[in-house]
């Protein structure tokens, strides 16, 4: 039993060898055109992958359908219009600007503008409540006493400050 398992483990890499992928279309120019078009379309199953890179069964069917329409001589825009009519704007990575997608296109800018307005309002509101600290001579003497220093020492430190 051990020898059988050992033989199977040694031969397993031979069975897992994969050859180079071949184009499905007979015409490499048509295949390149299909991949270029499919990169701009969204897979309906994966939702975050392009139609060209998806391995879902529906994506393979849609790629086959796109190839057939290309063989019929349809232009890329006609194929896109056909897919949009059949599956909706969701199939496009860049949905068109229309009434239903205005929030999608302009919503982030509106939220950014609203956030900036709220920030400016809050900053102005805070500035009204902030007062300048006024220290009298008595406050300075009290602070110096708390720090166990003479008031003249604090005055001399201010004068001898090298940065001024």
- Cα shape: elongated
Cα(first) to Cα(last) distance is 90 Å
Overall pLDDT: 81
The CATH H-level homologous superfamily of one domain: Cytochrome C biogenesis protein
CATH T-level topology of one domain? Helicase, Ruva Protein, domain 3
Structural class: mainly alpha
Largest sheet: none
Give the helix tally: 7
What fraction of residues sit in β-strands? under 5%
Secondary-structure arrangement, i.e. CATH architecture of one domain = Orthogonal Bundle
The total of beta strands comes to 0
* CATH class descriptor name of one domain: Mainly Alpha
| Helical residue percent band | 55-70%
Q: Poorly predicted ranges (pLDDT <50, ≥5 residues)?
A: none
SSE string, helix = H, strand = E? HHHHHHH
Output the radius of gyration: 36 Å
Keywords:
164 residues, 7 helices, mainly alpha, elongated, Helicase, Ruva Protein, domain 3
Task: Kindly describe this structure.
It is a single chain. This protein is mainly alpha-helical and 164 residues long. Among the domains are: 23-96, Cytochrome C biogenesis protein (Helicase, Ruva Protein, domain 3, Orthogonal Bundle); 97-132. The chain has seven helices and no strands. It has helices at residues 2-15, 28-38, 57-71, 76-87, 102-129, 137-146, 151-159. Helix 2 (28-38) packs across helix 3 (57-71). The longest helix is centred in the last third of the chain and has 28 residues, at 102-129. It is elongated, with a radius of gyration of 36 Å.
In short:
The protein is mainly α.
Task: Draw up the topology in text.
Elements: H1 2-15, H2 28-38, H3 57-71, H4 76-87, H5 102-129, H6 137-146, H7 151-159
Helix pairs in contact: 2-3
């Amino acid at each position: 039993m051990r020898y059988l398992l050992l033989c199977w483990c040694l031969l397993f890499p031979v069975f897992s060898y994969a050859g180079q992928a071949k184009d499905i279309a007979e015409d490499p120019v048509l295949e390149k055109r299909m991949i270029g078009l499919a990169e701009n379309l969204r897979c309906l199953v994966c939702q975050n992958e392009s139609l060209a890179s998806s391995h879902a069964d529906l994506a393979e069917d849609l790629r086959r359908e796109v190839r057939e329409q290309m063989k019929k001589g349809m232009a890329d825009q006609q194929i896109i219009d056909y897919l949009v009519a059949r599956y909706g704007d969701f199939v496009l990575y860049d949905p068109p600007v229309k009434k239903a997608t205005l929030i999608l296109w302009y919503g982030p800018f509106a939220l950014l503008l609203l956030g900036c307005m709220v920030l400016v309002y809050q900053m102005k509101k805070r500035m009204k409540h902030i007062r300048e600290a006024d220290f009298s001579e008595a406050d300075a003497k009290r602070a110096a006493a708390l720090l166990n220093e003479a008031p003249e020492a604090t005055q001399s430190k201010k004068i001898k400050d090298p940065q001024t």
